[in-house]
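Long-time lurker, first post. I've been practising inverse folding by hand and with some scripts of my own, and I keep getting stuck on stretches where the structure tokens seem ambiguous. Below is the full token string for one chain I'm working on. Before anyone asks, I'm not after the true native sequence, just a reasonable design that respects the backbone. If someone could post their per-position residues I'd love to compare against what I wrote down in my notebook.
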């Protein structure tokens, strides 16, 4: 059994912590936010993530998991310290490393002899060196090991990683981390820190590129009478392409893809290369929002002064995360064009500051009352099983813009709906 410290109790930190306790290690998690800390100490999860709360409770019950406010306390005596703090978008798209540097500064003097620090936060090339410099300890080695988990399946992804990347020039340190994580049974890629850091950004920009590609093909399909769902399936079975991440939608959002795209573009520029392919990926993502607003406007007839019902506010289903959500941006643009927006999302109980101007209701039918169009913006499965006859009777004008291709068009058309998806 090893002693592990985790700094930062967000998606990455908590998933890492419960994975380590699952492997039988003793874990101390440091979290600065007092509310979040209190929730965790209560044995509850501060984020909606399948299986997380149960595993937190299990870890606490097994006396393997505890939560503290001070990163120093988490780091003292630990054999391994995982840095899982946020790296938000800073000036001109570059990642802001101040939280990471602060964490490294705090733990530097209290780390045990020969401790290993593992950076899991998404960081630009050179950040491992920055952490090393801030820690200022000859005996302490820093390993860059980016996290690839997806929100909504964070615990599962962390317990069953597709691969483990270890970036460090010190082979003895790599061997120790490899031994710690080997029971997860994932392929390991051992490389230098710059490559490890690049892998994370390259992976996320590639995923973003797939989504913009799917959205572009969907637009073409609309013009030529093809069905994008079939086209994506048809290309996805080619193992060189792969079926995942080819679902058209309102564009990619969330706390990672848009931010990481900005960061890799900035890093490329610093390296003297203009990554124009990613400029196009971003442009397509931006255009997608407007394409969907225009579809809604066409059906609301006119948008100005109408009510639009919105189903789904989170950036994707199975999460309560609203950060950089395309649904919110679409709602904002509808408001700008003088529509009233009434929204329902299974995880959103009330209007917060990020939802200003949007009327949030806690019942999907209530959202549709008197609406001239219904926009499905997040792919919550439960939307598929609602009573659409009732929806039609509540709406002023029965029209659905399905920005996730979630619903079955034929039965809706039979009920008298105007139905429009993406590329079908
Ligand atoms: C992403 C990466 O997938 C993950 O590996 C990394 O560790 C963190 O960033 P996440 O932010 O949880 O994970 O979201 P993801 O599932 O990747 O979805 C990102 C956005 O793309 C969402 O807005 C989603 O709706 C959209 N998306 C995804 C599509 O529009 N179509 C798809 O086919 C897949």
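-- Answer (accepted) --
I ran through it position by position. Result:
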């Amino acid at each position: 059994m090893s002693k592990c410290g985790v700094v930062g109790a967000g998606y990455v930190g908590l998933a890492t912590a419960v994975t380590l306790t699952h492997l039988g290690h003793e874990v101390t998690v440091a979290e600065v936010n007092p509310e979040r800390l209190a929730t965790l100490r209560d044995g509850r999860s501060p984020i909606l993530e399948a299986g997380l709360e149960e595993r937190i409770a299990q870890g606490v019950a097994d006396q393997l998991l505890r939560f503290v406010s001070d990163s120093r306390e988490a780091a003292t005596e630990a054999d391994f310290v995982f840095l899982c703090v946020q790296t938000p978008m800073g000036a001109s798209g570059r990642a802001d490393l101040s939280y990471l540097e602060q964490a490294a500064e705090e733990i530097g003097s209290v780390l045990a002899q020969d401790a290993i620090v593992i950076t899991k936060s998404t960081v630009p090339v050179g950040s491992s060196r920055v952490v090393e410099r801030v820690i200022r300890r000859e005996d302490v080695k820093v390993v860059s090991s980016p996290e690839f988990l997806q929100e909504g399946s964070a615990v599962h992804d962390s317990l069953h990683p597709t691969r483990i990347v270890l970036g460090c020039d010190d082979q003895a340190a790599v061997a120790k981390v490899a031994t710690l994580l080997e029971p997860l049974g994932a392929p390991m890629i051992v490389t230098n820190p710059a490559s490890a850091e690049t892998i994370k950004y390259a992976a996320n920009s590639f995923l973003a590129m797939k989504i913009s590609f799917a959205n572009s093909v969907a637009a073409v399909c609309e013009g030529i009478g093809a069905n994008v769902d079939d086209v994506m399936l048809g290309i996805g079975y080619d193992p060189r392409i792969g079926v995942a991440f080819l679902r058209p939608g309102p564009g990619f959002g969330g706390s990672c893809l848009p931010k990481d795209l900005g960061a890799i573009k900035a890093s490329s520029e610093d390296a003297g290369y203009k990554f124009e392919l990613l400029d196009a990926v971003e442009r397509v993502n931006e255009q997608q929002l407007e394409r969907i607003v225009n579809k809604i406007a066409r059906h609301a007839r006119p948008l100005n002064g109408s009510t639009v019902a919105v189903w789904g506010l989170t950036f994707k289903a199975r999460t309560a995360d609203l950060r950089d959500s395309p649904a919110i941006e679409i709602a904002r643009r509808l408001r700008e064009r003088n529509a009233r927006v009434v929204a329902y999302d299974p995880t959103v109980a009330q209007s917060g500051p990020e939802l200003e101007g949007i009327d949030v209701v806690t019942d999907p039918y209530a959202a549709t009352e008197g609406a001239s169009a219904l926009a499905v913006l997040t792919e919550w499965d439960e939307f598929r099983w609602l009573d659409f006859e009732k929806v039609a009777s509540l709406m002023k004008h029965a029209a659905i813009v399905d920005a996730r291709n979630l619903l079955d068009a034929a039965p809706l058309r039979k009920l008298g709906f105007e139905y429009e998806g993406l590329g079908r």
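A couple of notes from the structure itself: The chain has a mean pLDDT of 96. Residues 147-151, 204, 207, 211, 245-247, 249, 252-257, 315-316 surround uridine-5'-diphosphate-xylopyranose (CB under 6 Å). Happy to go over any region you disagree with.
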